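I am writing to request your help with a piece of structural work I have in hand. A protein sequence and the C-alpha cells that stand for its backbone fold form the material at issue. Please examine both parts with care and let me know of anything in them that strikes you as inconsistent. The record follows directly beneath this note.
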Amino acid sequence: MKFLITGGAGYIGSITNWLLRSKSHETQIFDNMSTGHKEAVGDAKLVIGDLTSKDAIDRVLENDHFDAVIHFAALALAGESMQKPFKYFHNNIDGGLNLLDAMRRNGCKTIIFSSTCAVYGFPESLPVTEESPIAPASVYGASKRNFEQILDWYEKIYGIHHANLRYFNACGALSDGTLGEAHPVETHIIPVALASAASGKPFFVFGEDYKTPDGTCVRDYIHVLDLADAHLKAAQFIIKNNVSLTVNLGVGKGYSNLEILHTIEKVTGKKMDIHYKERRWGDPDAIFADNRKAGKLLGWKPSHASLESIIESAWAWYKMHPNGYA
C-alpha cells in the first residue's frame, strides 16, 4: 500500500514510517518540521508543509494517489494547551479539517488518526474501555475528541472511513538505537529520567501521595513499535471491511513512576538522585487500557510489553543520541 504520513518526521511517525517501509509499503512524509527531524525519515520522500495551509496539503494529494493517510501531525502537550488554547484548536482541528477536505477532493477514503487516552480525562473506573465516559480535562484532549467527532461526520457525508487509535503513553525506540524519541522540549518520564541517570542530576517526581501502591502516578506505557504495528493493521482492516473503528492502544496494565525509575536504574546500572515535588494539577492517580477490542478486531497484541524491554530500547537510543538528532 501507499501511505501519506502527516507528522511523519516526528517520534511516532518516523518509526511508523520505518516499519511500513520495512514491510515493503510505500510512504511519503508531510511535516512542518516544528518537532520533526529530516534525519528520521530515511529514504522516504519528505514534503515540508503545514496542514494549516490548505493549498500545501491539497497539492500533495492532487499529485499522488494514496491508499491511506496516517495522521500524526498535532500539538500534544496538555499543559501548554491550557495556556494556549487557540494554538491547539487551530492546529489540531483546522489543520485536520484541511487534510480531510483535501482527501475528499482527491478521492482518498481511509485515514488512521492518532488520538489519545486524554479523551477520557479522569477515568471513573479501570481499566479504561472504549465505552468509558468521554470527559477530556485539557484543551489538548478536547481537540482530539472534537476531531474524532469530525471524522464521524466525514464518514457519514463523504464515506471517508477512519480509525481512532487512542494511545496511552508512547515510549521506547528501535532496539539498535537508530530511531527514537527527540522532542525540542522533553516532558516524557522515560527520556527525561534516562538523561538524569546518565548525568547524575536530580530527577523530580511530581507527587508521592496518589492513591497507588507506592504513592506515585500509574500509567500504561506502550512501545512505539507496537503503536506503529497497530496503524498498519488498522489500515488493512478498514480497507478490507469498509468500516471505521475506535480502539485503545495500551499494554493493559500500569506502571508507577517509581517502577519506571527503579527499572531505569537496573537497565543503566546507575543510581538515580530522586526528589519529590508537589503533584501537578490534572494528573489522575492511575490510568491504563483495556486493549481487548484492538486484539479482537485487528489481531493486534503488544510484542514489547515488558517495562524492561521498553527501557532497554530507549537506553540504546539515548546512548547513541544523547543530544537527539543534533
Q: What stands out?
A: The first helix runs from residue 11 to 22.
